[in-house]
Amino acid sequence: MSLDYSAVPRMSDGRTAAEHIEQVAAKSEIVRVPMGNGGTMMWHVFGAAPDKPILLLFHGGSGSWIHWIRNVLPLSEHFSVYAADLPGLGDSDPPDDVNDIWSVTHCVEAAMKELLPKDRDFAIAGFSFGGMVSGHIATLFEDRIRRIALVGAGGLKATRKPGPKLHKLLAEMPPETLAAEARRNLEILMLHDPKSVDGIAIHMQILNTTRAKTRSRIMGQAFKLSEVLPRVKTPLTGIWGEFDSTTYPHIQERIDLFRALQPGFEMNVIPGAGHWVAYEAADAFNAKLVEVLKG
Q1: From the centroid of its chain, how far is CA 71?
Q2: Is the dihedral of CA 186, 191, 194, 198 positive or negative?
Q3: The pTM is what?
Q4: Tens digits of per-residue pLDDT, 18-31?
Q5: pLDDT at residue 295 greater than cutoff 80
Q6: Residue range 139-166: average pLDDT?
Q7: Quick one: three-class SS letters along 26-89?
Q8: Alpha-carbon span 109 to 115, nearest angstrom
Q9: pLDDT of res. 2
Q10: What is the CA radius of gyration of the chain?
Q11: How far, in Å, CA of 27 to CA of 261, rounded?
């Protein structure tokens, strides 16, 4: 069943969210590579050049590269940006086991070996579920990863304030209901200021969550990042939104957790932003990520 986006607000210039996303995607090289299980993994590559350091972007749960829609072009001025659709999400095929983080990770590992120049090191920014994947990938590419920026990373065994349950989005919902439920979920989980919930965010939420196969929430609830962190030797840095719904008001607990393993760990908090900090506070996030990775 095709999705009906007719109730999604248009942009101020009259374009639909889909048109905007397509225009950003058109500035990338779109690459599909084998991921070792018979399936393929989708990547959008922006601004690749031999003289730029490589930056991999791993999106959040039930997401896709669109989580980085406000970041890929500014970041591509500084980096060769490889924005992934993680296995079983976006336009990538599923892993063998959609409930298992290592099944996801080994698919990403195979795709990275196929895609990336073999003589180059790289950095990773991992948002939410992508942070969990980044931690696992770090154990497999220990000599090649310069730094990992964890962005509101999930899968941590730390206190989380209870909140309203998200509603499942279904393709058969009337368009007004679909858009309204997507907005509600974004306000609960992703964005702190309701005014930040625009048509692009709503379109992204509908598109990504209705096609997601990998069960990232199950992995997060099993604290899979905390499980692997003691094995991670790659330098870690945190970038969190001040009001991240998965963290607030327990940010210090995360800082203590990371510093127990890496005493030099630095947590960068973006004021006024929620969980999807790279979207809600894109300019501040982009500047901070460049500073962290190039400083």
Answers
A1: 11
A2: negative
A3: 0.97
A4: 999 999 999 999 99
A5: no
A6: 95
A7: CCCEEEEEECCCCCEEEEEEECCCCCCCEEEEECCCCCCHHHHCCCHHHHCCCCEEEEECCCCC
A8: 10
A9: 84
A10: 18
A11: 39
CA distance 22 to 99: 30
- What tokens appear for 134 in the block? 């980044």
* Residue 242 structure tokens: 């001040």
**Within 10 Å of residue 95's Cβ, how many Cβ atoms?**
26
- CA–CA distances in Å: residue 156 to residues 163, 222, 238: 17, 9, 13
150, 236 in Cβ contact below 8 A?
A: yes
Is pLDDT of 1 > 70?
no
Average pLDDT over residues 118-130: 96
Instruction: Summarize the confidence of residues 60-72 as an average pLDDT.
Output: 97
Nearest to 290 by CA among 135, 120, 144, 125: 125
Half-sphere exposure of 157 (CA within 13 A, CB side): 8
DSSP reduced 3-state for 111: helix
Buried b (16+ CB within 10 A) or exposed e, 272-289: ebbbbbbbbbbebbbebb
Separation between Cα atoms, residue 29 and residue 203, nearest integer Å:
22
Q: Give percent of the chain with pLDDT exceeding 90.
A: 98
Q: Dihedral sign, CA of 112, 115, 121, 127?
A: negative
What distance in Å separates the CA atoms of residue 163 and residue 184, rounded to the nearest whole number? 12
Burial of 230 (0-12, 13-18, 19+ CB in 10 A): exposed
If residue 156 lies in a helix (H) or strand (E), which one and from where to where? none
The neighbour count for residue 136, using CB atoms within 10 Å, is 25
Contact 273, 246 (CB under 8 A): no
Count of residues in the chain: 295
